């Protein structure tokens, strides 16, 4: 057994060391998705990762807290140790959180399995949400308010990108996230699972949220930041619901709106 297989602390003396290449230039780390990996930053996210079902590949830890993590990681996890300055040089920005983890992604659950899971009552469907922080906030809010899964349409941000992961505060590690390759077919499959489609819209033609009684199984459809839900998805919906707001305000941020809808519709 080598040192790297025994969870021993492995010192790193250069940012050019290829063993820590996964942690390099994190602002441009889209390459990790193609490798089936993602990065968690900071003790809060790393601790959640280590207690989740996701398998860590390696950790990069500041010297001052290295031994704390030596007893926390699963056997065989690689533990690299470096100075704060070296870590900052490697990741490409100022870093004060002490630890990063590289972990293996899990396969996205098939939509059929998400819909068929017994006991699920609330799905949150993001159709056009493009900002990673908004998506992360929606995932965090969905977990907090009892949603059972997140469904993503085409072109959504990577749910395991650093910005989504940070904004979700680790919720993406706990809540199933599935991608619909073809939205229309995906929504039809959701409906066949006895979920009613609830379109969130702005306008007087919709039912005000305070008068809306949620169905037993609900898929809440959220649209893009700029234009909201597409007309084709509104046309497919079983319900159209709106949040009454002051006339001087045009609309709400999609993540804020998601929280209001979910709080009102929280399954009892």
Word description of this protein:
The protein is 29% helix and 20% strand. It is built from 10 helices and 12 strands. The strands form 2 sheets. A 7-stranded parallel sheet has the order 8-7-6-11-9-12-10. Strands 1-4-3-5-2 form a 5-stranded mixed sheet. It has helices spanning 31-34, 42-50, 66-70, 84-91, 111-116, 132-144, 162-167, 183-192, 231-236, 254-264; strands at 9-11, 37-41, 56-62, 78-82, 99-104, 122-126, 149-152, 177-179, 196-200, 207-208, 218-222, 239-242. The N and C termini lie far apart (52 Å). It is α/β, with parallel strands linked by helices and 268 residues long. The chain folds into 2 domains: 10-104, Ribosomal protein L30/S12 (60s Ribosomal Protein L30, Chain: A, 2-Layer Sandwich); 111-265, 3-Layer(aba) Sandwich (Alpha/beta knot). The protein is elongated. Strand 7 (149-152), helix 7 and strand 8 (177-179) form a beta-alpha-beta unit.
Series of H and E elements: EHEHEHEHEHEHEHEHEEEHEH
In the CATH hierarchy, the architecture of the largest domain is 3-Layer(aba) Sandwich
Cross-sheet strand order for the largest sheet: 8-7-6-11-9-12-10
Helical amount: 25-40%
Largest sheet: 7 strands, parallel
Strand content: 15-25%
Number of helices: 10
How many β-strand runs? 12
In the predicted model, the low-confidence regions spanning at least 5 consecutive residues are 1-6
Radius of gyration: 21 Å
The CATH homologous superfamily of the largest domain: SPOUT methyltransferase, trefoil knot domain
Based on CA inertia axes, which overall geometry fits?
elongated
Estimated structural class:
alpha/beta
Top CATH class of the largest domain: Alpha Beta
- Compute the number of structural domains: 2
CATH fold-level assignment of the largest domain: Alpha/beta knot
The chain-level mean pLDDT equals 91
Q: How widely separated are the two ends?
A: 52 Å
């Amino acid at each position: 057994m080598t040192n790297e297989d025994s969870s021993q602390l492995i010192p790193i003396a250069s940012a050019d060391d290829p063993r820590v290449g996964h942690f390099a230039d994190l602002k441009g780390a889209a390459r990790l998705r193609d490798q089936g990996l993602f990065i968690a930053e900071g003790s809060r996210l790393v601790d959640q990762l280590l207690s989740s079902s996701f398998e860590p590949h390696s950790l990069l830890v500041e010297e001052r807290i290295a031994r704390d993590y030596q007893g926390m990681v699963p056997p065989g996890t690689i533990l690299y140790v470096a100075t704060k300055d070296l870590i900052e040089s490697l990741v490409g920005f100022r870093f004060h959180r002490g630890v990063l983890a590289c972990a293996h992604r899990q396969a996205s659950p098939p939509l059929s399995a998400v819909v068929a899971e017994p006991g699920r009552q609330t799905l949150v469907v993001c159709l056009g949400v493009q900002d990673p922080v908004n998506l992360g906030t929606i995932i965090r809010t969905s977990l907090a308010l009892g949603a059972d899964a997140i469904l993503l349409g085409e072109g959504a941000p990577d749910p395991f990108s650093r910005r989504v992961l940070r904004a979700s505060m680790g919720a993406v590690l706990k809540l199933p996230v599935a991608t619909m390759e073809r939205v229309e077919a995906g929504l039809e499959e959701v409906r066949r699972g006895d979920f009613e489609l609830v379109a969130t819209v702005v306008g007087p033609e919709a039912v005000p949220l305070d008068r809306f009684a949620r169905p037993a199984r609900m898929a809440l459809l959220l649209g893009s930041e700029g234009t909201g839900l597409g007309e084709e998805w509104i046309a497919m919906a079983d319900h159209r619901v709106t949040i009454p707001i002051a006339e001087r305000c045009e609309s709400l941020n999609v993540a804020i709106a998601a929280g209001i809808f979910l709080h009102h519709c929280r399954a009892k």
